[in-house]
Specification:
The protein has 9 helices and 8 strands. It is of the alpha/beta class. The chain has a 6-stranded parallel β-sheet, sandwiched between helices. A two-stranded antiparallel ribbon has the order 4-5.
């Protein structure tokens, strides 16, 4: 029996959380972690969470839930950009952690949960080093076309939030063999 593929998961929390809004108000990140790692050995999972400088404890509950789910949580306080907004760019920190992981952990696969096209250069570098890079994002919502094209694989999170409806067994047989019904 083969050993399962070793993966490391990176969650760009702001990018993915914002994209979940049309589907569900509170994504279950523990369940998402299981979904992304299904059938594989998850070595570690990182979550990068921006902190609002005007309300630094607003996400404490979410951060605790991420820790409980098994993520290593990286936090960064953003900078105000207006009366009700702030900017917190994690691209450099995520890129550095991706490269550290490639050198130290040496996983078979890295799953990057982000559709941000700023990650294209690091995706290509990881692939050159022989690491499969799968991008998990929402096609048509937060997944830049370049990211989908340059990754080794793409996990459309629409399939996670809108799974295919279950087909009754009798219909599944007919759907699997449509020609059989025409012959009979």
């Amino acid at each position: 029996m083969q050993n399962p593929e070793r993966i490391v998961i990176f969650l760009d929390y702001a990018n993915i959380n914002r994209s979940f809004e049309p589907f569900t108000p509170q994504p279950d990140y523990a369940d998402l972690l299981g979904y992304l790692g299904e059938g594989r050995f998850t070595v570690e999972a990182h979550a990068f969470v921006p902190i609002d400088p005007r309300n630094p404890h607003a996400r404490d509950r979410e951060i605790d839930a991420l820790w409980q789910a098994g993520y290593l949580v990286h936090q960064k306080v953003g900078a105000p950009t207006g009366p009700d907004s702030y900017k917190c760019d994690f691209d450099v920190e995520i890129t550095l952690e991706l490269m550290r992981t490639a050198e130290i952990v040496r996983p078979d696969i890295i799953v990057l949960a982000s559709g941000d096209k700023d990650f294209v250069p690091v995706i290509l570098e990881l692939r050159r080093r022989g690491i499969r890079v799968e991008v998990a994002a929402f096609a048509g919502i937060n997944a830049a076309r370049e990211v989908m094209q340059k990754a080794s694989g793409f996990i459309d999170l629409r399939q996670y939030v809108e799974p295919a409806p279950e087909v009754p067994e009798e219909e599944a047989e007919t759907a699997a063999y449509p020609i059989a019904e025409a012959i009979a």
